[in-house]
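Anyone have tokens for Patatin? Sequence:
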Amino acid sequence: MAALPKSPLRDSAFEVDKLTNEIFSILENKFLFGYDSPNFAAPKTHQPGKLAAGKVRILSIDGGGATDGVLAAKSLVHLEASLRLRSGDPNARIADFFDVAAGSGSGGILAALLFTRRKDAGEGGPPTIAAEEALRFLARCRKASRGRRMFRRRWPGGGAEKKLLRRAFADELTMRDTVKPVLIPCYDLESRAPFVFSRADALEMDGYDFKLRDVCAATVAERPMELRSVDGRTRIVGVDGRVAMNNPTAAAITHVLNNKQEFPFCNGLEDLLVLSLGNGGSDFEDPGRSGLARITEDGASAMVDQAVSMAFGESGKHNYVRIQANGFAGARQGLAKHKKKTRDILESAEEMLAQKHVDSVLFQGKKMGERTNIDRLELFSGEILKEEERRKTSILPTVVLKRSSPHSTRTSSATSLSVSSSV
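Reply: yep, here.
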């Protein structure tokens, strides 16, 4: 075999034997020169004696929707409960079982809450908050807005919601302080293009590091708000992340497949486990958003789901799960009638999770499935735990997280999330 060009994989500090060296060479070949087969979506065949690097677990959360993030949060409450039961760990957290989180709008706030170190995390205790705590935070934000759509026309400039974010995210807390890679988009009016706040970029330089409270404000802002990076060099005039990418699933997948530093052996969709959470579509009773904006928002989310589902092909039955409400007209009427009552939103979210799921089928559009959304969450928790168990015996790293560079002038060891006191 001809000598391979030098690559970052050869600089790894892992102690490897002859067999592992061969595995590295094969993986390098695929990384440098591409797949041998165009059928990249087909699942791998694991032969006896062969080692695999495993699957990267991605969580993607839509923005807004008729439930203001509550449907996604309720989905994660059910998933976390299943993971605790199956793993036997009563303190298990969503952040323990996902490698990447992406969220837009209220979904971005939810991702930030779940993947940031908590203030009261003692030694040996859960480092992040539980999904139930994040759900209560979203419910409190909704209550503070007195029945309006979450943060609608209230950013920037005070308000009860902004105070809640200030309590939740300390002033020193930035994108660097998330425990796993996190992606949160907004639309930048300065460059007239989407801007994605990223932990990976923040760790590279202060010019891409932003305060988490500002990031969360930007991804839900319906009026332009200015924010600057921690070093003051990068200026963003951000508005609603839903305008940029209401469904950030494709952005999360692209990030993983092109981030060889943190995901060195992830070469295709067969190396991913993806959970994409919707929020029941837009609330068509909301007078603050035009009909065209709502249709665009829902249509963009559905198109991303369709494209991702088609890309996964047959492997998508196990590797890609989309949770979204269907037949939502009756629920919308109920939300319009009682939209000031958070209790009704929570009950409606439970009803949506009990619905039969709808799949995107190649050349057949949408098709009603046999299982409910809760059933699919339960099955997906099993896939996540299989990957968790596999990693305990694997010599190949599925994820190699970036850390703050030694020459960085700031430290994030003392910054943390404080949600309990504000929910």
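The CA atoms of residues 122 and 192 lie 43 Å apart.
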